[in-house]
């Protein structure tokens, strides 16, 4: 039971929970009492209430991460190119997609599709027996 409670604190507040918090706080409940009732941390309740009093809204804010440079269709196209021709380079893929992206983006999409990069051997790896024969020669 304690594990479930600990995990719950790290998930986002649902719209319903936000509404409950605002209703209880409007009714005059303390932050501690509201947190116990909705099974959340006091700071989550306090943050929700502060947003409500400051902005008059309880909606979640949009993410602050970087904007996407490629669409989902372009992501699929990158993966398809790698499947069709495993020897194609990242710069060639970038030119084919037609979007200004860095090579790391292409690598990330391929890694997400569980595709590994294929490097050619500079030389065949030698077994201990081969090394011994080579030294004798």
Automatic annotation (TrEMBL):
Biological processes, Gene Ontology terms: DNA integration; DNA transposition
**Gene Ontology molecular function:** DNA binding
Coiled coil (residue ranges): none
Q: Which Gene3D superfamilies match?
A: Homeodomain-like
Source domain of life is Eukaryota
Q: Which residues form the Transposase Tc1-like domain?
A: 75-137
Name of the protein in its database record: Transposable element Tc1 transposase
Naturally occurring in which organism (per UniProt): Trichonephila clavipes
